[in-house]
Amino acid sequence: MKSLTFNQLQFRIFVLLFILFISVLIGYRYFIELPKLERGISLIAERELETLTFSIQNILNTVSRTTSDYAVWTSTYNFMLDKNQDYID
After folding, report:
1. Are 75 and 87 in contact (CB under 8 A)?
2. pTM (two decimals)
3. In this structure, how many other beta carbons lie within 10 angstroms of the beta carbon of residue 78?
4. What is the pLDDT of residue 71?
5. What is d(CA 40, CA 34) in angstroms, rounded to the nearest whole number?
């Protein structure tokens, strides 16, 4: 078996360290940073959905009050025109 020269040994150690560094970097990104990023994105999405739901509820409440007011005004106006007994009851 042929013995390794110092340069070949140094090159192999460098390649081994480089592969080790790259694998640690990829592992850190995949197992630590990616779950944190996904968790943060899901929290932001949940917060946006809650805000959207709250806004829609407020709009629906406003529309409900407005339509109810118009319905009462229309019934009152009709009562004033023809003295409807059903409205009094």
Report:
1. yes
2. 0.56
3. 13
4. 62
5. 10
Instruction: Kindly tell me if the per-residue pLDDT of 82 is higher than 90.
Output: no
Say which amino acid occupies 55.
S
Residue 21 CA to residue 19 CA, distance in Å, equals 5
CB 87 within 8 A of CB 79: yes
Please report how many Cα atoms fall inside a 13 Å half-sphere around the Cα of residue 81, on the Cβ side: 6
Report the Cα 53 to chain-centroid distance in Å. 12
Tracing tokens 């009709």 back to the chain, one arrives at 78
Q: Which residues of 12-28 are buried (b: 16+ CB within 10 A; e: fewer)?
A: eeeeeeeeeeeeeeeee
Within 8 A by CB and 6+ apart from 75, the residues are 87
Dihedral of the CA atoms 16, 17, 21, 24 (nearest 10)?
60
